[in-house]
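Quick log. Single chain, no ligands specified.
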Amino acid sequence: MSETVNHGSTTEGPSASRVLSPDISEHFTALRNLWREGTLYDTTLVVKGKHHRVHKVILAAASLLLQDKLQKQSSGDESINILEVPDEFQEVIDIALEFLYTGTLGECECFETLQHFSDYFKIQHLSELLLKICRDEDHSPRVVSMTTSSGYRRDMLRKWDKFRQRGLLCDVVLRADSFRFACHRFLLAAFSDYFRAMFTSRMKESKEEEVVLHGICASGLKIMLAYAYSGFLSLDGNIEEIVDTACHLQIQPVITAYTQYAERELDTDNCVKSYQISCFFNFEKLKLAAEEFILSHLLEVSDDDIARLSHSDLESFLTNDGVNIGSELVLFKKLCRWCRHDEEGRKDSFTDLLKLVRLPLIDEKSLLNVVAKEELVMTDRKCKQIVSEALRYHCDAHRQPLIQTPQTRLRTCNMRLRLISVDLKESVKIQCINLHSDSHDRMHLLTCKPRLLRHPAVAVMSDFLYLVGGQSAADGQCSQCAFRYDPRFKTWLQLPSMKTQRAKFFLGICGSKLYAIGGIVKKTRLKKNRILTKSVECYDPEENQWSYKSPCFKEMYGLSGATCRNKLYVIGGRSGDCCHGTLQRYTPSTDSWEELSPMRPVSRYNHSTVTINERLYVIGGKYFSSTNFLIDHLGISCYDPSRDQWEFVSRIPPLSIIRNSRATNLGSDIYIIRQRRCQGSGSQFLQTFDVNQKEWKTKVLPHNFPSGALCILRCNND
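-> predicted structure:
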């Protein structure tokens, strides 16, 4: 037996927290279009012999006079198919009907006639609107401009809902499951494309008094009808049923309102559900928002919600480099709990998903004591093999720069690009700032030098920081030692020592090998008598040892260089009281050197060199004036290897008295740390030069940020 639903009142506005008010303007636009098409009309207004097809439910809700007539007709089971309208209203009937269907009054030159029409048919909202126009104009205007009644549409919805509750003028019954809903075809066709197609076509349902809706649940239909007759959408219920019904009935305003609400209200309790709904119903924008939220808050999402994710869902998140999980060990534990939720059905999936956890980023101790001892791993041969590969990565510590893969790199959400400054003097601290932060006023301690050395050479290879050579802070003697810093685990690894002790030399990287070139090998009391070297030695991480290579052309220190097209370029330097502009190129494959066009416009030392777009940019440095004084060079020069030519690029903006300019680059941006000293105090500045745009930017840094060797390093986000 079917049950007739007690609709209840839905027109007094939202009382619950999860009630939306979708835009109802589309609803009334559809009503007007159906009226203009002459669709589903059930009565006719006749004025001076001209017929106007209309709908009883519109007339009854707008006009108290016609409501009384139609109510009597309905209760008396009579049929009113034609309603006569006095001839005097012929000039305003079209404008009046437009108002009844839309709530908007068009331009009218018959103001008094329109007032009379409104009074005759007792159309309250039209009378109030005309009265307001009179007050605003101070008299009855001859011409009325287009005006909209603010409360008309909501009032019409309220009255239609009352008609539905009382069964007044209802001409169809919808049946879902065992529930029956009395409705008005015309209103259903206006708010649902599904019903519009059903009632305006030759489908058999267009003639039936009772329509059975297959595949639609009664609870979802009840909420959709409440929206159609009130303009309010309640989300208190089964969201999947509500969305499924809205999609089935093709009610776009409801779909839009829900997706906007769900996107706005995303949190750790509902993000997984919203994601699954968006995937099922193909709500692309909501899917992207929910996916981004889950990626950013995966650690905070409950295990029960994560357990609802499918293999493909979890695979999508773990493959995404932007997933924010803090540590891969935490992610591993979450994956284990996901598997145990349905261990029998998910065991095979666990093996596949374990490959997406970046196990090499878990420290060796935790790999041995936590990961390898997990029962899900111990009972599966493939899982044990995956863990063994991660352990081998840790065993080959010196080779790690050569075997970097996506599995060994930090995820973007857990990584920060940091500008590192290695103090070249007495400080043991290595400081950094977040490169892409809105503010550079916060300085972070990255780590401390493994040994207090002055003027060590610094280089970055495969996101590892190398610190080589330098001078002892105690006696100033040069050092042979070499160290490598891993920012992922915040650990130092001591490498084999160089064959030659040296300081203030150039440390370059070419073909995954380090090259130590030139420098000071022994300190003396007089700078000009320092013992220099032109020797070159290479560190190969594969062999984990240093070996001599062909020496460069001249003994120098304070030289700089960079790699371009798999060749090392060594530029400038100093010996005694003389600066050199020599440009030397080393080819590793042939272990040979050649001299190229010397540096322009001046010879210098203690400068910086970077490679951008296969060109070498030489920044800053010092040179001797004609009176033999050392002067800071405030310029950037560029060398093009393909043409063996130099050109001046830009002057570095002056900052009063400058000391210790150092530079590095990221993409086309050159970063320069500069120090201004005045009356015993100092200020630090970060200057950025965009090579492509030829633009400078300057920001103030913490006053005690060291002005040392610069590099950019990907570090843990902590």
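The chain has three domains: 43-162, 167-406, 412-716.
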